[in-house]
Automatic annotation (TrEMBL):
Source superkingdom: Bacteria
Domain DUF4130: 84-251
Organism for this UniProt entry: Flavobacterium procerum
UniProt name for this protein: TIGR03915 family putative DNA repair protein
């Protein structure tokens, strides 16, 4: 058995796939950043991310998959589902060994698993596009905090770049401790680690624009006014807007008094 140790990135995983074929490695187990303690006697193969090797694997997949099928590999990886890197490797192995397109072969467990992971990630990215709420800081930066189930920032980056092209903004993933920052020209990945105290009322008064409280309250009032009590369907509402998102939604926190 061989432990493939890579940096946890998509490019790192692609490099690992290339080297598995390059060195003819068998009985593979993937590990991110460090070896697994449960496999004491396994051989270890450390992988250094190589963009050229990653690109060669991507080019091979592009030749054998549709555009959507190729995109599904990246989206499935971003799902962060347990052992998805190993599932994707078996999927890639199946793709590269077949003379026909295998995307619709749902009798294959790995094809089905990749498809499910793809839908899981894209659904989460669609929700983030709808549920992100920006707040304006005193230095004229629009800031949003999210905690998605998947690593969706790379999937929603272009959407917000086009939609808010005339505004500086930063979307911070609190679960993964990094953000996407847009400076009116381009986007960049920024590693951050915010103190939990930043969300307290004392700090928000120091950080956010003095008019932000007014607009937050205005949004809550609008949401309340369009809500028709007689047509309230809590079950359906939670289905479309799960409660795990509510703590970052302005309209779901009517008791906020952060800016007063």
């Amino acid at each position: 058995m061989t432990q493939i140790i890579y940096d946890g990135t998509y490019e790192g995983w692609l490099t690992a796939v290339f080297e598995i074929y390059e060195y003819k490695l068998n009985d593979i187990v993937f590990a991110k950043n460090k070896a697994l303690n449960t496999l004491l006697f396994a051989d270890i193969h450390p992988v250094t991310t190589d963009v050229l090797k990653a690109k060669r694997v991507e080019n091979g997949l592009k030749k054998r998959l549709s555009v959507l099928g190729f995109q599904s590999v990246f989206c499935a990886f971003q799902s962060e589902i347990d052992k998805i890197d190993e599932v994707l490797f078996r999927f890639v192995k199946y793709v590269l060994s077949s003379t026909v397109n295998v995307e619709q072969d749902l009798s294959n467990d790995d094809v089905l698993a990749v498809k499910k992971a793809f839908h899981f990630t894209t659904r989460e990215s669609h929700r983030m596009k709808a549920f992100i709420r920006f707040k304006l800081t005193k230095d004229n930066l629009y800031y949003a905090l999210i905690e998605p189930d998947c690593d969706v920032l790379p999937l929603i980056e272009q959407h917000f770049k086009k939609r808010y092209a005339d505004q500086r903004w930063l979307i911070y993933d609190a679960k993964r401790k990094y953000s996407i920052y847009y400076d009116l020209e381009d986007t960049a990945v920024v590693k951050l680690h915010f103190d939990s105290a930043v969300s307290s009322s004392t700090h928000t008064a120091e950080i956010f624009d003095e008019d932000e409280g007014f607009f937050q309250d205005l949004w809550r009032r609008y949401f309340s006014s369009v809500n028709i009590e007689s047509r309230k369907n809590t079950k359906l509402h939670v289905q479309h807007m799960p409660k795990r998102y509510w703590k970052h939604l302005t309209e779901k926190r009517p008791d906020l008094n952060d800016f007063k």
